[in-house]
Write a structure and sequence with these properties.
By secondary structure, the chain is of the alpha+beta class. It contains eight helices and eleven strands. A six-stranded mixed beta sheet has the order 1-2-6-5-3-4. Strands 7-8-9 form a three-stranded antiparallel beta sheet. A two-stranded antiparallel ribbon has the order 10-11.
Length: about 180
């Protein structure tokens, strides 16, 4: 399990995307095809070192390429290939940051301390705060993203709803989700 392999790593990391929303809800709501985690971009080597049984690849414009210093600069997304199983295991999103501050890759004006955006399940699994997950899902939302939004919105606190609206105002001022937050 990812959490076991990353235990004790002194790097802020968290589960993101659909699994993060299920961790927030404390319930599985739909099948997930993969699991994604996010880490500060320059800490990727420390994370990858925990998975010496995997090969890493970057994904850019539909092209999958072995991860190298050059390819890591061209994409934020990295896939882990489990050699023994012959299967993709997880994705690592390498995020911009400034020390202990996360920077949104889509809108660099959005900056938050990791301690504000990373929440934890009762058993300690770190996950991205749901309003930030929804921010990323708001760009070209697919049916599952719309469903995630409708399922999570009633569970958000008033502060989380306000924050989601503020985030959407900065990235997509006319987004239809703003009318319902």
């Amino acid at each position: 399990m990812l959490t076991d392999r990353l235990a004790g790593l002194d790097v802020p990391w968290c589960v993101v995307a659909g699994w993060a929303l299920d961790l927030f809800r404390r319930a599985g709501t739909r099948p997930h095809h993969d699991v994604e985690i996010a880490v500060p971009a320059d800490t990727f080597d420390a994370v990858a070192a925990r998975f010496d049984d995997c090969d890493f690849f970057t994904v850019h414009s539909g092209t999958v390429t072995p991860a190298t210093a050059d390819t890591l600069r061209t994409s934020h997304q990295t896939w882990a290939w489990d050699r023994a199983a012959g299967a993709w295991r997880f994705d690592v999103f390498r995020e911009p940051h400034d020390g202990g501050t996360w920077i949104c890759r889509r809108e660099p004006r959005i900056r938050r301390p990791y301690s504000d955006i990373i929440h934890h399940t009762p058993d300690g699994i770190p996950f991205l705060a749901p309003e930030f997950v929804l921010l990323f899902k708001s760009k070209d939302p697919r049916p599952k993203d719309e469903s995630d939004f409708r399922g999570i919105l009633p569970l958000l606190s008033p502060d989380q709803r306000r924050r989601l609206d503020e985030l959407l105002a900065m990235t997509a001022p006319t987004h239809p989700w703003r009318a319902t937050t």
